[in-house]
Amino acid sequence: MLLRGTLINIELLLALLIVGLLVGTVIALLQVYGGRFFGTLASGYAWIFRSIPALVLLFLFYFGPSQFGVNVAPFLAATIALGLRSSAYQSQIFRGALQAIPNGQMMAARSLGMSRLQAIVSIIIPQAFRLSIAGWSNEYSSVVKDTTLAYVVGLNEVLRHARIIIDRHYDLAMLAYLAVALIFLVLTYAGNWSLGRLEARIRIPGLQIGGEL
Amino acid sequence: MSLLKVEDVHKRYGKEEVLKGVSFELERGETKVIIGPSGTGKSTLLRCINQLSPPEKGRVWLDGVEITHAHAKINDLRAQIGFVFQSFNLFSHLTALRNVRIGPIKVKGMSKEEATKLAMEELARVGLEDKADAYPAQLSGGQQQRVSIARAYAMRPKLILFDEPTSALDPELIGEVLEAMINLAKGGMTMLVVTHEMGFARAVADEIIFMEHGVIAEQGNPQQMFSAPKHKRTGEFLNKITELYGETD
Q: B91–A109: do the CB atoms touch at under 8 Å?
């Protein structure tokens, strides 16, 4: 039963990471290359979604629309609320990485006749991506735990299953919560291990700047 | 018609006017060397030519096309102007081979097979075919600079600009880079080189341009510049750098 709940957490986790990665990348690119207008817009976005507590965001996206007669499924509400929140954090990781790429890389690309967009896509992003992995590993640890917050909007995730067990067998409370804790230890370890493997795999041979972030 | 024409180029950074009206021309197949004290705008001039840092005033033509024109197809024009940086600026996530072939693929739309073949030839030209799979951080400075020369030449530019290509190198690595440049010059490449290497200037330069305080103070062929400079400052400067850098030819 707990494991079935865990599957929901993993699904939500994947959804959050994908939303966070896609939106976060766009926000970071706008912040660095978007000029003053889009840069300010992107900074504002990052500020808003990093400032509002996760629970408040969840309530806003779950209960907010229902006031206007729009019912949002718990999974969708959680994906939007926590995904956008993660995108704000991920954008800052990626922004730092983009800014860490020496300006000479862009100049060399432009001097070959590449457009700005070509240079960003072929030269800057692949390098910034590698620099981001350490930061993402951190963000993963925090997002994986955030998935339990979806409990409050009624998503049948692992913590809710634990509650159901405990409601029936109060004497199992300690055991159930410990089991949930164990599940998150495993999830966090597995994620960080995979990202560590990825980092080692795509490390640029001989290059030193990877360790600076 | 000259291949490159620079007319009254001005450039300022903040309050300081770095270039105060520079004009000169470069004929097809010529190599000109720009010398002068640091902070005189030599590197800025190169960046004004390929518009990495556009001038505020003045005009630049490449092969009759005005680069500084508001509607110039700047990416197309830059593809015709090679640039070799002091700090190499090889793409650090790409192997030597990929560094050389990415321009022809992305900018000229060449097929991967064709570009790979071309890149191998260019690496061989600078003596680095055995380093094709090495990443920049695995190469010495001299090797990196030779790859960057190959990267520039693989685009078959009409002109290559060199911005102090040997200044960041250990002395024992300078020779191999100069050799690659001399080979290009002798092969008919049009080159504009900012350098302190007087041996190189003597060996291949058709003309030496001496810049000081944002203007061209004097220009002439190497013999005349070395033996009978018109200005006292030119002679002093040449003596000083010859003393510092020696003559490597």
A: yes
